[in-house]
Amino acid sequence: MGDFSCDLHIHSTLSPCGSLEMSPNKIVEKAVEIGLHVIAITDHNMTENSFYVREAAKKYGLIVLCGMELQTREEIHLITVFDDFEVALDFQQRIYRLLPDVKNDPEYFGDQVIVDTKDEILHSEERLLLNSVEISIEDAVSWVKSHGGLAIPAHIDSPTYSIISQLGFVPDNIPFDALEVRNIEKAKDLLPLIMLKNIPFVSFSDAHYIADVGRRKTQLHMEKPDCQEIGQALKALGAERHD
Predict the structure, then answer these.
(1) pLDDT, average across residues 202-208
(2) Considering only CA atoms, which of 96, 175, 125 is closest in space to residue 12?
(3) How confident is the model over 18-27, as pLDDT tens digits?
(4) Is 197 exposed, middle or buried (0-12, 13-18, 19+ CB in 10 A)?
(5) pLDDT (0 to 100) of residue 241
(6) Homologous superfamily, domain 2-242
(7) From residue 137, how far is each of 6, 48, 159, 186, 216 by CA, in Å?
(8) Model pTM?
(9) CA distance 121 to 29
């Protein structure tokens, strides 16, 4: 068992609101520099760049999980994380079919590019990724959990695109692994709006720029950094808070 410094909410060049400096190599170099052990790449409604970040990280021993920041039908941002890139890619393909066919305007929203480990652009995604997908929060979490992934509502203390801003509360019938907050010190103020009191709070960077990688992180005590162990470590955090 050991302590792992985790930032499971990082955007890359594939997110239109992310800086073009967020290439696989630069993300990895920054994560290693500041002492992170585990990161997840969570671009809006896509996961493809996580493969190249994982490849870039191999020589450093940094663990890279394959994720996505899904925008559900309710306009809720949900962090989804998988161990296996192929499972994450399957999820992406399912989500992409449900994404509105609206063309991106790079001048307004920003570029959406897949970049390899040589910092070369492989593909530019033309469909705008900053849109809600025709899938409910319940169905999305059900698919993620049935495929061994983690499901964490993003920035629940945000006035936009959060489960609280959209629903008014966090229901107790959806098996979330944790709740991400931007201000961990004020997280307890949200408890009246959270129906299940032992869900742990976590804080990640939501980095769109290199300087922000790891600015918020969560320490998890576990045997190895995979989704199953992270899930167990999160349950332990929740039980600890409940006590």
Answers:
(1) 97
(2) 125
(3) 788 999 999 9
(4) exposed
(5) 59
(6) Metal-dependent hydrolases (3.20.20.140)
(7) 24, 22, 18, 25, 25
(8) 0.96
(9) 19
- Comparing CA positions, the residue from 91, 88, 75, 81 lying closest to residue 131 is 75
Structure tokens belonging to residue 126: 């033309």
Q: How much is the mean pLDDT over the chain?
A: 95
Chain center to CA of 220:
16
Q: Which residue has the tokens 């499972």?
A: 87
Q: What percent of the chain has pLDDT over 90?
A: 91
Would you give the distance in Å from CA 33 to the centre of its chain?
A: 21
Q: How far apart are CA 133 and CA 112, in angstroms?
A: 17
Q: How far is C-alpha 24 from the chain's CA centre?
A: 16
Task: Give me the DSSP letters along the chain.
Answer: -EEEEEEEEE--TTSTTS-TT--HHHHHHHHHHTT-SEEEE--BT--THHHHHHHHHGGGT-EEEEEEEEE-TTS-EEEEEES-HHHHHHHHHHHHHHS---B--HHHH---EEE-TTS-EEEE--B-SSS--S--HHHHHHHHHHTT-EEEE--TTSSSSSHHHHHSSB-SSS--S-EE-S-GGGGGGGGGGBSSTTPPEE----BSSGGGTTSS-EEEEESS-SHHHHHHHHHHHHHHHH-
> Which residue ranges make up each domain of the chain?
2-242
Separation between Cα atoms, residue 205 and residue 180, nearest integer Å: 10
pLDDT tens track for 220-237: 999 999 999 999 999 988
